[in-house]
Every structure is written in C-alpha cells, then in structure tokens.
Amino acid sequence: MTPPPPGRVDPDLADRLTDAILLSGLPVAFGEEGPGVRIRPARPAGDADRCAGAAALDWLPSPRLTGAAAMAEPGQPAGPAREVVGTAMENALAEFLPAFGLEAARDGSGRELRVAPPALPAAGLRVPPRVLAARPAGPTPAELGVPAALLDALRRSTALAGLPLAAHLGGTGITLAPCSSAEGPGTDPTGNPTGDPGADGAADLGWNPSRRLADLADSDRPEAPAAATARAAVDAAMRHALGTALRACGTELRWLHALQRLRVYGESAPTIRR
Known about the structure:
Layout: H1 11-24, E1 28-29, E2 36-41, E3 55-60, H2 63-71, H3 78-96, E4 104-106, E5 113-115, H4 141-144, H5 148-161, E6 173-178, E7 186-187, E8 193-194, E9 203-208, H6 211-217, H7 224-248, E10 251-256, E11 261-267
Parallel strand pairs: 1-2
Antiparallel strand pairs: 2-3, 3-5, 4-5, 6-9, 7-8, 9-11, 10-11
Helix pairs in contact: 2-3, 3-7, 5-7, 6-7
C-alpha cells in the first residue's frame, strides 16, 4: 500500500482511531476547539523522521480552560491545569488504544503522542453498527443520593476538563455512586480506626464506555471477549486519568487503594474564577 503524502493521516487509520475513541466514551474534537481528542497529521521532528500517514493525538479541554490558560499570568493555575489535563488524557489514550489494535507512543522528542498505520489493516477490534440492546437508563446521581453541592462541584471541573459526566448510571462518561454509610469512620476489634472519615457526603467515580462497546462485551457474539478486554482497558486507563485531570480542575479526590475506588469529596481550590 502506498503511504499517504506528508501532512495527511492514513484514511483507514483515521477511521479506526475515531471509532475507538468514540467506543471508549470520549468525544472527538473537530477543528481547533475542544473538548475532545484531536486527530491530526504527525509533524516530522527532523529530516530522518518518517511519519507519513501517522496520526498525532491531542486532548483539547473546554474552550474556557484553553482561553483562561492563554491569558493567565505566570503562576496562575489555569496554564498548568491545561497541561496536566492534556497529559493525563493522552496517557489514557496510550494505555487503552492497544486493546483496539492501535499502538500509541510518544515520538522521539516526547512532544507528540503518535499512532502509526497498523501493519495488518484488518487487525484489532471492530464493532459493527447495530441496533442497541434495550437497557434501563438507571437512576440519576441526585436520585442515588449524591449531594447537590458535590454534584455541582464535579460538573464545574468536568466541564473545564472537557470530560462527559453521565446523566444517569447507565449513561456514557463519568458515573457517580454515593458511598455506603458502612464505609464511614469506625474502629476494628483492637480499637484502631477504620473506614474513610470523609465518606459521608462523598461519592465514588466510575467510567462507562459507549453503549456499543458495552453491549458487545455483554453479548454472545464472537467479538465479545475482545470487546470485554477493551472495556476493561478503557476503565483502568480512565480511572488513572480522572484523578489527575479533575484534581487539576479544582476537585478534591483520593484513590482508596484498599477499596480500589476513586472517591470525590467536593471542590478544592478553583482553577479559574467563576
């Protein structure tokens, strides 16, 4: 196959990247404004850099965070927050794209996250379009008992980062579930403190991929095992990224190793003025 000329992404690669990103539950950015993943041609770092047909991936946060970062004075949090969010999300892409048959890695300079056209174009997970299975939408965060102040704080930080917040438990994006009262502070038989002192009023974060990927992973189709592997890779990558990205946008979070949960407690220092 003849590679595309410099300055163009291989068309099959662009299609596969777009599909994989949407299957993961993330948005694709079109043009120069986010939010979402921007797919663009890789830029050669030098004369010896052979990157024809390769794609470079950037995470574009909300225009509000991008604009605040561009106008921020040295020492203001908006500029560093934009960099932290972008790096966290690009690391997540590099972590889960191999499960879709797409290898992503930084170029030699470390400036670009690149994906080269696969050696075997047919390799990797392909999810055919089809009618979605009937699924209940599930309760909203408010119906689950997530405090309104916590939900408002998370809405602000997810909007800044450009990340989707699921409207209900079965929706695509970040999900919220209130902490069990049994996880609050207590003591073990020896009198040592146990539980999470901040559990009251907190919530646990999760990530739902697209309905297409979830339905295929739960089906009896031959592609179901590969889809389940991809769903697990997306879940792990997004849990790693969410803590970093949302903390940079003004949310107080903590990873609870014993419970393997990412817990949100509310708003910390705001990244930009409201």
